[in-house]
Amino acid sequence: MELLDCLKDQYHWNDIQFIDNHLIETEHGEKRIRFWYDQELLDWHTQWRDQCSITPCVLIDRMIRTKDNETAIKWRDGWITIHDELKDVFPQRGEEETWGLMLGTMVKKGKQFESRYIEKQYEKPNLRLIDDHHTRLNKREQMLLAQCLTEAKERSKKAEQLRRSCKNEAVPLLDPIHSSQQAKRVYHVLVWTGTENPPERSYRSYHSFLVKWLSKNGQASLELLLDAMERTGGFTREQALLLLAECLEPTELIPISLQFEQNADETAIRQAIEASLSEWEYSKRLVKVISSWLDKKKKVLT
Length: 302
Description:
- By secondary structure, the chain is an alpha+beta fold.
- 52% of the residues lie in helices and 13% in strands.
- A hairpin with a 2-residue loop joins strand 1 (16-20) and strand 2 (23-26).
């Protein structure tokens, strides 16, 4: 009740009740409570939400301001921010322009943002471990993994070459994408639900997002999305190459190497292989689409 009384006072609400620990019902609809314990992280996310909103098409779920026009209130050992809780999911097909505007703007702004946070070191598959242990599997699985290992080494080499070719271009600092369900709709406006996570200087979450987009919506839709990202001016050819480098990394093999590291039984390893190979094919397809898109852009320029 102490928190509810505080919110009533700070936001001039009369009727509030908890739905769960992070969600409340007010006379102005459902609101999400976010708890922050790091002032710099809170400040980063506040600025990120302000900078990446592009009215009237795209809004990031900004902090609702208090009666004193503050974006957060002090609460015990940290801070609280309040955000609108929206239900309707924003569509993808037919809305590539809006999605591209948002993603491209995030790349553009992410190149300008700094952070004091130690950059997250993403896992890479232990290819040597897979190579050493895959012979314990049946012949078919051995052949599949042997082929994947050959391709994985080649992909890693190409990724490194691309990064070297863009050595003067930095990967943007981004709020990671967890799900397309973060995109909500209010009339024709895309309202993106940001996270509370430390920002990442990586395209890893974009890779996962685009794999799912391609799987769901097809190549033509993905190319329209990339076109719209490019038109923002932030998603340059160099940034597209850095994205491609991330997509080339054989991250799909991580679950397999983890199973070998844990000395898992053959059933668990086999399940990891099936899941990984499915992702492997989608990632290869994504790499082909982005490469083809880049080639088309290069021909237009020349």
